[in-house]
Write the C-alpha cells for this entry.
Amino acid sequence: MDSDKPDFVRTFRSDYRWDSVLRQPYKQDGSAPFRDISRQVLFQEPDMGCELRYFEMDAGGHSTLERHEHAHAVMILRGHGTCLLGDTVRAVKTFDLISIPAWTWHQLRANAGGPMGFLCMVNQQRDRPQLPTAEQLAAMKANPAVAEFLAG
Ligand code: MN
C-alpha cells in the first residue's frame, strides 16, 4: 500500500466502529434538542455529491425533530425503535429502509431496551434544518399518536 494515501478499505473493527472513522457528537453546536446520539461520517464523496453517515442512539435516545429541503435515505443498521415522519409514527427495526422527503418533520427514537443505529445518506451541500415553532409543535401534538411519540 502507498503509505501517503489512505487505504481504500477501512476495516470494520467491532461494535459499529471502523478504522479511521471518528466518532463525533451528533451536532457540534448544541443548537437543537437531541439526546444520547453520536455521529460517524463513513463516506464524504464530493464527486458523488453525497455523504453516508452512521448515527447511533443509546437506549431511549433520539435525534432532533426537524425538517429541511434536503432528503434523507435511511437504513436501520442496529436495534429497533420508532420513526416519526410527518403525521405518521412507525415502529422500525434492523434493515428497514426509511425515505424522508423534503420539508417533512422527522425524528428517530431508540426503544428503551437498547441502542439503535442507522445509516443516513444525504446531499453533501444541504440546507440547515428548521426546528418547529411552538405553534407547529402544538399542531403536531394534536395528533394523539404523534403526541405519544414526542412524549417519549
Ligand atoms: Mn434531518
In short: Strands lie at 24-25, 35-45, 50-62, 72-78, 80-85, 88-93, 97-100, 106-110, 116-123. Residues 25-151 form a domain with the Jelly Rolls fold (CATH 2.60.120.10). The CA atoms of residues 15 and 121 lie 21 Å apart.
